[in-house]
Amino acid sequence: MKSFPNFQWFIRIGGSWSYATFYVMAEMYGSMIVTLLFWQFANQITKTHEAKRFYSHFGLLGNISLPIVAVVFWLFLSKDSNYVPENVKMIPVLCIVIVMDCLMLLIYTWMQRNVLTDPLLYEAKAEVSGGKKKAKLSLGDSFKLIFGSK
Prior knowledge:
It is built from 6 helices and no strands. By secondary structure, it is mostly helical.
């Protein structure tokens, strides 16, 4: 490390690659994966004319989790926390993540089976009829269209 002082932090991270990978995946999971899955589901069940009414509520509801996560991390990972012994501080946090993921999966499955199939609770999007149907192009035809257009 003394021969390459500018790279000392990269060398230290490389030495702890398993922890570094864990934290990178944890950051990506919370900020990208769960968010993308949520908004994909929200776009699936919300009609265009309802978007203005509901999307601000969806965003507010999604950001309520940030203070809750801060409190949970403070309880379990704080230096002066007496709730968990020092050598197993991450285990309760990971268990909470696993339980919440299972709860999300159960709620999603319940909504798919019970709510979205009930005509009294959810009206499926009506098919636009009489409109011009788009031709489904193969991958090669798509590239020809892209490279051939002005």
